[in-house]
Amino acid sequence: MSVTSGLGGLLSIDLGALARNWRALDKVSAGALTGAVVKADAYGTGITPSSKALYAAGARFFFVATPDEAIAVRSALPDAHIFVLGGLYPGAANLYVRQNLMPVIGSMPMLEEWLAKCLERNEAYASAFHFDTGMNRLGFRLNEASLVKQRIETLGYAPQMIMSHLACADQPNHEKNRTQLALFGSVMAQFPGIPASLANSAGLMTGRDYHFQMVRPGIALYGGRAVVGRKNPMAPVVTLHVPILQVKEARTGETVGYGANYTLARDSRLAIIAYGYADGFLRSASGSNTRPGAKVVVNGRLCPVLGRISMDTSIIDVTELGDNLPRPGEGVEVLGPTLGVDDQADAAGTIGYEILTSLKGRYTRNYVGDGNLG
Q: Which positions are annotated as active-site residues?
């Protein structure tokens, strides 16, 4: 493949595949509403085009982390229901009201500021309440549930939804899941009649006990693996090809890259590609003599990364290609049919989420299809 557009890397996002993934998850969660998590620039795929494609596929409820992300979705989707997972940012209540955003409230100061705005405007503005059932991250502590209930009953206010978040949903048999499910049930009992949401992608796939009235898939929408130890059923959404800058010969005993932590055991042919940690190729995917690194695909063959990944470039071993050597300007597959986001994540000792959200490099972006074509 030749990379011609922009002369650099080519990142393709298949919006049709994104739409198919949402529809597939919507079938699994039949009986519950299926939202879409589009935070972190829609997991690196572009928050505006991806949100539009998901809306066209049928999504109406969107989850973001920050008000800025929420405003981007609102600009693209005037009729969407948008929850801000980071809650009510201090002093920002007027912004939420103007943009029709729903803060996911998880502390008493947030709650008091939101209720004060409702009283000031004599309007019960929508929100969700987040209760921490075992992550010690955002959310009211469980012993605050009765205080929250008492406070809102005084004013006749009710949230649109009660939420929590699973800590170990990627491991379906983990005892923590059942513990959190039980604790969430105890919170729900204090807010009868209020819709509830607990399941992320992995929780959605774990079982209907976790679905309640709304599920909130994220990573699965974008083709990433949600559950450890299971075959990933989701369609890949992202492909990435980057160009070769130079092909050169190197001799036995010479070292490769910064730190000289890879020494060649044979005469080799090396290709330098225009892809480094500034483009999202994590340094933890570097290869040394004691630890293999990531691979890329050149002319249909897997070729390993040698030495440390640099800011702008990486070095790969193309010796095994023999006479079928690539030429400068030709592209190599970093993400695609052969290597998915989880393959690169495994090589880097991380998760697919980090691979996707690191795709902020110097690429030409190419969007394929849309939610209706999915």
A: 39, 258
